[in-house]
Design a protein that fits this description.
With 139 residues, this protein is of the alpha/beta class. The protein has one domain: Rossmann fold (3-Layer(aba) Sandwich), CATH 3.40.50.1010. It is built from seven helices and five strands. It has helices at 7-14, 21-32, 42-55, 58-71, 79-86, 93-104, 128-138; strands spanning 2-5, 37-41, 73-75, 109-111, 124-126.
Length: 139
């Protein structure tokens, strides 16, 4: 199974955001252990860097990006991705870009806490908690 992990899941894990941190870390660990093919959208990396260096510091931000790049594949963002996101039924442009990147890597789902934001997505959006339950069923 291929899944794109949304920015908010990574940020929950990196910034210890309760009550989401535990499930977010478990999703990331499951990707690292190759229980599924985890992808990070290229734009997620720049967003994480920007937010984490403001919330913590630059060293934490750089280490976070290093860890993500080491442990998952990157869903690229191209002219095609951006063009498709602009005409997508998804209202939020950033979410549209993530969805289009997920389509391009043939992802099964998008793991996010903002499931309603992906209501118009052709790819299933699922919370970290529900994704972990799905993984457990598949064992």
């Amino acid at each position: 199974m291929k899944a794109v992990i949304d920015t908010n899941v990574y940020l929950d894990a990196i910034l210890n955001r309760e009550p989401f941190v535990q499930d977010s870390r478990r999703v990331i660990a499951a990707s690292e252990l190759e229980f599924f093919d985890g992808y990070c959208c290229a734009t997620t990396l720049t967003d994480i860097y920007y937010i984490v260096q403001k919330a913590a510091d630059e060293m934490v931000a750089r280490q976070s990006i290093t860890d993500i790049v080491r442990t998952c594949s990157i869903a690229s963002v191209s002219r095609t991705t951006i063009s498709a996101a602009l005409i997508s039924k998804i209202n939020d442009f950033e979410d549209g870009v993530l969805c289009e990147a997920a389509i391009q890597v043939n992802a099964t789902c998008i793991i996010t806490r903002n499931v309603p934001d992906f209501a118009q997505s052709p790819i299933l959006a699922i919370t970290p908690t529900d994704f972990l339950a799905l993984l457990e069923k598949g064992k």
